[in-house]
Amino acid sequence: MRITREFLENVLKLKNVRDCGDNFMASCPFEFLHTDGKDSNPSFGIHKESGLWHCFACGEKGGLTNLVSRVLDKPPLVAAEIINGYFSQKVDIEKLARKIKSFEEALNTENIKTTNLLPQGYTKNLPKNVINFFQNRGISKGVLEEFEVGFCSEGVYKDMIIFPVFVNNFLTGFVARVVGENVVGKKYLLPKGFRKALYNLSPIEGCVYLVEGPLDVLKLYTLGLRNACALFGSSIDYFQVRLLIKHGVREVVVMLDGDVVGRNATKKVVELIKPFFSKVSILNLPDGLDPCDISERTVLRMLLRSVMDL
Ligand SMILES: [Zn+2]
After folding, report:
1. How many whole angstroms from 55 Cα to the centroid of ligand 1?
2. Which of these, 124, 150, 164, 142, lies nearest to 226 by C-alpha position?
3. ipTM score above 0.95
């Protein structure tokens, strides 16, 4: 393969490229994933011969096609063509296309048995009690289908609702929730190694409503508010902030649960995110009301009008 400095600097526009024998080092192109959002002391290394790369700061790694695809924001097949136009050792386009196709087919299969991303026993066929659970909350069947909400009848997540987590339409993992309301202990179970992204995040121009859980998102979606994202809890971290920025979010309305925990958390979330967005507002829900308890479009519209600008 023999990666060149010219390729890294001119095609991928990497900064601070340094020759280190078998490898090049450079500032990480994914520095928005770093804790401080920077990579002033280059942590990104790429092996000249194989094109394999790894960043010691954010832990991202992969092959050359993956790197080109992500840095230039092109589909993998286009990235492979760019590489093939540049280097003598070619990426096998047909093989790559087959790989992508089988991955997509696996995602589309009605009942996925085991993948790394969804738990064993996941099915989109929801049992009656789960359908009732959502119906009682006014979440429509169409929305459940759209979000590929599923159920586990066996395995570690037996009898739990499964919410696949998509970022940018890509499946990145899942969270599980017990069925029912009056539950002792935790309602949600996050799989080991689950990296909190945001539920329902896709490229957006403008405003996002931040809520606590997937149920809030699904309820608001049913009521016609499609740009709500869930934090998987009442706090936000820098990784989530960077994801929002990366997806084009400019304005944020914080809409956490209408309880003591939610109100206290709102202050912290606002403090943390304020420097990063052009506008941050708060929507304080009435006492005891969570976004998923809002019952009608009209109520929602009234609430949205009461957004407090900061
Ligand atoms: Zn990095």
Report:
1. 5
2. 142
3. yes
